[in-house]
Amino acid sequence: MTKIGAHVSTAGGPATCFDRAEEIGAEAAQIFLTPPQQWRSSKVEPDQVEAFKQRAAKSPIDAVFVHGVYLINLATNDQTMLQRSTSSLKSSLTTCAQLGIKGVIFHLGSHKGQGLDAVFDQICRACTEILDVTPPEAWLILENSAGAGGTIGSRFYDLGRIIREVGNDRVKVCLDTQHSYAAGYDVATAEGLDLAMAEFEKEVGFDKLVAVHANDSKVDLGSGRDRHENIGEGHIGLDGFKRILKHPAFRDVPFLLEVPGFGEAKGPDKPNVDLLKRLRDDAAGG
Prior knowledge:
Elements: E1 4-7, H1 16-23, E2 29-31, H2 46-58, E3 64-67, H3 79-99, E4 103-106, H4 116-132, E5 139-143, H5 156-166, E6 171-176, H6 177-182, H7 190-203, E7 209-214, E8 216-217, E9 228-229, H8 237-246, E10 255-257, H9 270-284
Parallel strand pairs: 1-2, 1-10, 2-3, 3-4, 4-5, 5-6, 6-7, 7-10
Antiparallel strand pairs: 8-9
């Protein structure tokens, strides 16, 4: 069964993510290890590791992911930025292994108008370097992008090309529904979803899909803009998400909400979780 999860805060320590996820009925969780707009080491103290493991053992939530900081750019021509990006991912993957977290979901970055070919080798070398010095149990998870500003990974072909070149089974993919829609994949319709996932299977492979960022879209199809909306309040809509949840490509893949929240909520909330659960149940029932 597809688990419905959410991005939650870790204020007070990583172990607090379980309380916050359980409070909103989430069955999986995504967290930041450090503030997403800052370069900080994601190292955790031994007592935090122990607290996380003890809390994890008592929780029904067994799928936890880390989201890398937003500053990461493996395509940059600034060598200081590249070094910081690779160091951040190395640190995060090491911490994931210590905590028993599945892996780090991250944005590859932007080529700033150079085109993917100009930065392709650098990206692949950086991924290989990161994987070579980090624990083998932690996944390096590429997230597809919306496409604006030269962000890499808006096309499934590009993700597949990077994965094939790196050639390491630890490289996985997180598919963001809003980014897909903004990049021109019409996942809101039955035909568009089938075409998109057929392309994903050909270029990437369903075996690489380990997480979904479940977000409705505030912006139009093909807009290229990264603008999330609550489930059912955007252009993908309730019927769109029901079809997505019913599609065999997503069977048993955790869905992680990154939505603004209804009403006064700030971020993923129980109403969004409950809505996706209902759509999941409706999809399972036909």
